[in-house]
Design a protein that fits this description.
The structure holds two protein chains of two kinds. By secondary structure, chain A is an all-alpha fold. Chain A has 13 helices and no strands. Chain A is globular. The chains are: A mainly alpha, B mainly alpha. At the A-B interface, helix 1, helix 7, helix 8, helix 10 and helix 11 of A face helix 4, helix 5, helix 9, helix 10 and helix 11 of B.
């Protein structure tokens, strides 16, 4: 299969994934027995101590339905939802912070999430795979088993446990990091930037540790299998050094399934990022989502989910498009 | 869920696993340790609740913040609940949720994976597109939104996690089916006049069962973890004791500052042990099946 066909096919899958993702986000809440508009109105009603007249409620319902895009039958709503999201990138205003548009709120938080996520995912992938490579390449040695043990102990630990334990250890028992991090708002100055970095270390460390275990274990298994391939034996007989064989022969080949796995696991990685932001009050998309969920701000929730799906699918696409460049079997003329 | 499939799990067995002869081949250290831990948790979680002195979810049953004693093995929390009994019920609830989700996911992923692998063509392409989309879509944001719409009870959570958790298993089982489809003995069965259903049931199924068992345990891990995650950030029904909801209340009542460490540390230790046990059991089974078929 040529490169152009590969790219075309992958982009096609990308568009399909986006469409299916948006469709699920659109229909899922509508299948639920709850009605956000009624919930919101009753919330307002109770705040106003029941003083709203039926006419006021009726006009409020009409304007809310308009803001939510709930006019017409479900098919009309679906088409207008897709049109708004894809063509105009518009999710309407936030209800809790009316009339601030949802997309400026989310686009403001997105760089925070992407920054944290990118750095920690890349670190976890590189360190985890290197440790796994060493553990797999020297799998006959006893000391390599210790490295694998790190993976076995780290991998099954659920993310929230990792986060809470790290807070307990590094912010309470040994207070190196702040217990409740603060992230300054407004324009960035060098001092503020240092503060942001310092406060981000603990959340990033949790994310790295969370991604670490699986990379060690699966890279170890892949490296063990690759070491026994004929080309690895050939390199050994040719007299290539241990280092050359490990990096240029074993790693370059064993890495490929790991790249694919990374692209496929981005959704899970993103889940971890959301949880980090909530647990560490880190001002990203996850925190916005949590606040919106507790205040019933559905436009913001919708927007945050849609943008997460787009971000995760796009990142997967980018990784997959880089794949042919990494594959040693493909030569570029 | 991504992380649950290690490469060694994807290799299709080359020989059906016989069950009638001695089961000793199943035993290895990982499996033994894993099964022991899980058995202790399961027995404790299923039997002990019958001896509970009071419903641990009720608040103000006891005095608040009592230290560890003979009366209260792990003390009581700031809500006047006994932490030991809270933990017992939490383990029971989490295990039941895990098993229910795992049953649903195993059935759906086997049916979809096998049918995609064997029917092939456009049907397979369409199915795999859906599978890849479901894998890509981050689950947590969707569950947070659903949690905001309706305070999800356990039954709803089971359905929601099944609805998004089947895709990884389906993907793996399909790739196993693809490699099995071309084997000699399948052709043999076909030429002998067996229909597709017979082949699936008699020839393919025995190969897939080993992976299904491993996947079952991994799905339990995934389900318990997902529920606990939702509970920790407070978007599920946190008054039901689960491994996550205890952590939620402990964090909310600042257990660290009131000096009630047991409240926070006990669920952490219990979760780590349970997850380690399940994980060791799953990799242990995997290694046992692999050595059985002569891979290791």
């Amino acid at each position: 299969m040529g490169i152009i066909q590969y790219v075309a096919k992958r982009v096609g899958v990308y568009l399909a994934v986006l469409l299916i993702g948006l469709t699920i986000t659109f229909f899922l809440p509508r299948l639920m027995p709850a009605n956000p508009i009624e919930a919101y109105i009753s919330q307002l009603q109770s705040r106003a101590n029941g003083t709203l007249t039926p006419e006021a409620i009726a006009s409020m319902r009409a304007s809310l339905e308009d803001l939510y895009g709930l006019n017409g039958n479900i098919f009309v709503q679906y088409v207008s939802f897709l049109k708004r999201v894809i063509l105009q990138f518009d999710f309407g205003p936030s209800f809790a912070f009316y009339p601030q548009p949802v997309n400026t709120m989310i686009l403001g938080a997105l760089p925070w999430t992407l920054g944290l996520l990118l750095i920690s995912t890349v670190l976890a992938w590189i360190i985890g795979n290197l440790v796994g490579l060493v553990a797999g390449y020297f799998h006959t040695k006893r000391s390599a088993t210790v490295l694998e043990l790190v993976g076995i102990l780290l991998y099954p630990v659920p993310y929230y446990i990792l986060a809470v334990s790290l807070i307990l250890l590094l912010a309470y028992v040994i207070p190196i990091f702040p217990l409740s991090p603060t992230f300054p708002v407004g324009a960035m100055t060098p001092a503020k930037f240092g503060m942001v970095l310092y406060n981000s270390i603990l959340p990033a460390l949790t994310l790295v540790l969370a991604g670490f275990g699986w990379n060690i274990l699966s890279m170890k298994a892949l490296a063990v299998a690759t070491t026994e391939e004929p080309y690895a034996t050939y390199a050994r007989l040719k007299g290539a050094s241990n280092w050359t064989r490990m990096t240029r022969y074993v790693f370059r080949n064993a890495m490929l399934p790991q790249v694919t796995a990374l692209a496929l696991s981005l959704g899970t990685v993103f889940n971890g990022a959301i949880l980090t932001e909530i647990l560490f009050s880190y001002p990203g998309v996850g925190l916005i989502m949590r606040t919106a969920a507790s205040s019933g701000d559905y436009n913001v929730l919708y927007g945050a989910i849609t943008i997460s799906i787009i971000a995760v699918a796009t990142a997967g696409l980018v990784i997959d498009l880089f794949y042919p460049l990494l594959d040693p079997r493909i030569r570029h003329q | 869920m991504s992380a649950t499939i290690l490469p060694e799990a994807t290799a299709a067995p080359t020989r059906p696993v016989g069950r009638r002869d001695s089961l000793l081949w199943l035993l290895n250290t990982r499996l033994a340790v894993g099964i022991t831990i899980v058995a202790i948790f399961a027995l404790g979680g299923l039997i002990l609740p019958f001896f509970a002195p009071a419903d641990p979810a009720l608040q103000s049953t006891y005095l608040k913040n009592m230290p560890v004693s003979w009366m209260h093995w792990l003390g009581t929390n700031s809500l006047g609940q006994d932490i030991f009994w809270l933990l017992v019920f939490a383990i029971r609830n989490s295990l039941i949720l895990g098993v229910l989700v795992a049953i649903g996911v195993t059935i759906i992923s086997t049916v979809i994976g096998l049918s995609a692998g064997f029917i092939g063509g456009n049907f397979e392409r369409l199915l795999m597109l859906v599978v890849d989309s479901v894998i890509t879509i981050p689950l947590l944001p969707l569950l947070i939104m659903l949690g905001a719409l309706i305070r999800a009870n356990q039954a709803f959570l089971v359905l929601a996690i099944i609805a998004f958790g089947w895709a990884w298993g389906a993907r793996t089982i399909r790739s196993m089916a693809l490699s099995l489809r071309e084997r000699e003995f399948i052709n043999m069965a076909r030429f002998s006049g067996a229909n597709t259903f017979d082949i699936l049931l008699r020839e393919i199924f025995p190969y897939v069962t080993a992976y299904m068992l491993v996947n079952f345990i991994n799905t339990m891990l995934f389900a318990i973890n997902t529920e606990a995650t939702l509970a920790v950030i407070g978007v599920s029904r946190v008054e039901i004791p689960t491994l996550g909801s205890i952590v939620f209340w402990a964090l909310n009542y600042n257990a660290l500052f009131t000096g009630n460490y047991v409240w926070l540390v006990a669920p952490i230790v219990a979760s780590v042990l349970l997850f380690l046990g399940l994980f060791l059991a799953s990799t242990g089974f995997n290694a046992a099946f692999a050595s059985r078929r002569g891979v290791l």
